[in-house]
Amino acid sequence: KTTDKGEKPKTIEVFLKPAYANEWTVLSGSAGWKVQISGSIDNEYGKIKYIDGGNTLIESSLLPIFNGKFFGLSLSSGSFGIKIDAKQVDGERTIFEESYTSSAANTFGSQNSTILLGNNYSGSIDEFRLWSTPLSSSVFFRHVLFPEMINGNHISSSTEDLYFRLDFEYPKNLAVSSTLINSFLVSSNGLFNKVISFLGVIQLNFLLI
Length: 209
What we know:
Helix content is 6%, strand content 41%. With 209 residues, the protein is mainly beta. 33% of the residues are buried.
């Protein structure tokens, strides 16, 4: 998929459960940006930060992101700038639901950039998705309530806008094979049909179509 400006992705969506409180880089790109979660040892509260070129552009309030439960994190880029959405639930009860924005422009780099998932991160990851359009906050918050849901901003968004998904549904022996398959789409031209490598870090290389 290619967005209106030939940029991708516009939203990165992931579900995280850190092993313990520390400073972790959960998402980063070769264009110089990263998303960190940080907290003090033995404290369940921490902050989510978006850093670009060494400058912290977004910093959340203290959130219980180290409480041993999964939480959803969404990073989006658009005409509004940069947006981070974060939500955690316990059944149908919302523990936190937050949105943070920065007017700074960022498109996660050019077509030949790289995204790293889990570079300097210890914990669990589930449902990693790339969208070619900025995902609305309300849609993302519903995804956290229902993690298998892949609807987007409009009725055909799941087939038009969602172009990469790792659902981690099946056990994988990484000692045998270091690739993971895009569970949403295996394109005939090879676009994102597999993750390039997985050695504690998932590396995604943008390919031009």
